[in-house]
Design a protein that fits this description.
Structural class: alpha+beta
Distance between the termini: 79 Å
Helix content: 40-55%
Largest sheet: 6 strands, mixed
Radius of gyration: 28 Å
Order of helices and strands: HHEEEHHEEHHHHHEHEEHHEEHHHHHEHE
Length: about 500
């Protein structure tokens, strides 16, 4: 065996020498240079120091073209011809926030049923009509809008756009498919009752939003509301809200406005406008949530924690300052909250904070799943970090790191057609200025420590926080009571107060 190893080593050595002997002089010089660099590398690079980030790339987004049909349908087009593909997203300017108080989930259910059958096609016809061309069609809804989205090769646009238009205008909500989708959604709700992270988030929303506010109920609805819906309810929601004067067609890709406009007129020119007196998202009365809300999950090895209060609208002029402040507080891996609870204390795999932006006042929340034995200590550290960023200015190093991270990551977030389209949708849905992205970059780059602390003082309220914990009651309750942060109130799995 030893003899075999020696022979193999000798052959490899000879091959190496032969390679060196027969390569060109330039290649031999390059090999020698590489060898010298390898030999000197340990002496020239300090691997204990964080590398300096490079300059932020300049972000240049293509200018959108805009047009409108006589019936009020607005069109926003971003032409990008590098790839022979077109994305169309028809946005209806109402989502789950328009659900009636006693019918949560109506907008989401309606959007989910749009491609389950039309006056001209069955669900199978719709699926085959899209799949045959390698295209994609999706429908959906969030708090602020509902939408139907088509992604297709440019050469198949005419064929796939026929299906896209049919789904938007002629859906019939067939009874058999309606019952199937309802059953799927009820099963999904049942599964979520076994997910402590989902229970915690939904209970948190129920606590901070007053009864009857749309943000206080799940956008997919409740067991009661799903069981009450009929196909006629969905049809009525579609007829009320899916109107051209309540919609914008966003298009991005390999097509010009000259090529697009005749197609849109043919598809939507005779679409009848409707009433646009739609409900607005109600404001939230000020309240102080100085209580801890506990949901018992017997035997849970972890506790899910949500801490926060109502935040701000997306179009708030202090948006950039709040984003920088949150980046330092809990918006990234290197943020204070994560470094404290994960890296220093070892309570969790990850802890974060976020402002969630909507057309109405979205929530601010700090969150984590932590070891059961560290539940009260984790809450204490969350509260300490929130109070500290309000009371003390951030450091120069923290501010520079946050500004660099946020501006550098923006380039990565504006690379694809989908990302460009989403930026255009945000601008229209949240009524932002057309230069909002460049203005945001400029504000972040020039942000000062004073502006960050002002944002923390204005938009964080350490004495008005709702603290929601989902965990094993017998293990965590006494520790939470000793925190002296108000009464510990018990909620059931649906977030309702247990009497």
């Amino acid at each position: 065996m030893k003899s075999h190893i020696k022979i193999t080593t000798l052959i490899l050595l000879m091959l190496g020498l032969a390679g060196l002997q027969f390569c060109t002089p330039e290649a031999r010089n390059q090999q020698q240079t590489n060898q010298k660099m390898t030999e000197t590398e340990p002496d020239t690079i300090d691997r204990t120091a964080r590398p300096e980030p490079g300059p932020a790339p300049e972000i240049r987004l293509p200018e959108p073209e805009k047009a409108s049909l006589d019936n009020g349908l607005d069109i926003v087009l971003v032409t990008q011809s590098e790839v022979p593909m077109v994305i169309m997203d028809l946005v209806i300017h109402n989502g789950s926030a328009a659900d009636p108080v006693d019918a949560p989930g109506l907008a989401d259910f309606t959007a989910a049923m749009l491609d389950e059958g039309t006056e001209n096609r069955t669900a199978l016809d719709i699926s085959e009509g899209i799949d045959f061309y390698g295209a994609r069609l999706s429908t959906g809804s969030n708090w602020d809008y509902s939408h139907v989205k088509l992604t297709t090769l440019t050469k198949h646009l005419d064929s796939t756009m026929m299906v896209f238009t049919d789904v938007i205008r002629n859906s019939t909500f067939p009874k058999e498919d309606f019952e199937r989708v309802r059953e799927e959604r009820l099963n999904s709700l049942l599964q979520k009752k076994d997910q402590p992270s989902t229970i915690a988030t939904e209970a948190f929303y129920k606590v901070i939003y007053t009864k009857g506010h749309p943000y206080g109920t799940p956008d997919e609805g409740t067991e009661e509301s799903l069981n009450e819906f009929t196909p006629e309810d969905l049809r009525q929601f579609r007829d009320d809200y899916y109107r051209p004067n309540n919609a914008t067609l966003f298009v991005a890709g390999d097509i010009t406005m000259e090529e697009l406009l005749p197609r849109v007129r043919a598809a939507f020119g005779d679409w009848k406008p409707g009433d646009t007196d739609f409900p607005t998202v109600p404001e939230i009365p000020s309240a102080e949530y100085s209580n801890i809300y506990l949901v018992d999950k017997e035997g849970a090895p972890q506790s899910q924690i949500r801490i926060g209060h109502p935040g701000l609208h997306r179009d708030n002029p202090d948006y950039a300052a709040v984003q920088v402040m949150n980046e330092i507080l809990g918006g990234s891996f290197g943020s204070r909250i994560n470094m404290n609870l994960r890296e220093d204390k070892g309570f969790t795999y990850g802890a974060r904070s976020a402002f969630v932006y909507r057309r109405g006042v979205g929530p601010f929340l700090a969150y984590a799943g932590v070891k059961t034995s560290t539940t009260d200590s984790s809450v204490k550290e969350f509260l300490k970090e929130i109070r500290t960023i309000v009371e003390e200015p951030v450091s120069d190093e923290e501010l520079d790191r946050a500004k660099s991270s946020m501006t550098l990551s923006l380039a990565r977030e504006t690379e694809t057609l989908n990302q460009i389209l989403d930026l255009q949708i945000d601008q229209v849905v949240y009524d932002l200025p057309e230069d909002h992205l460049s203005a945001y970059v400029s504000k972040v780059r020039n942000m000062t420590k004073t502006e960050v602390q002002q944002a923390a003082r204005e938009y964080l309220h350490p004495n008005k926080l709702a603290i929601v914990v989902v965990g094993d009651k017998d293990s965590v309750r006494s520790g939470l009571e000793k925190l002296d942060y108000g009464e510990v109130l018990e909620l059931d799995l649906s977030g309702e107060l247990v009497e």
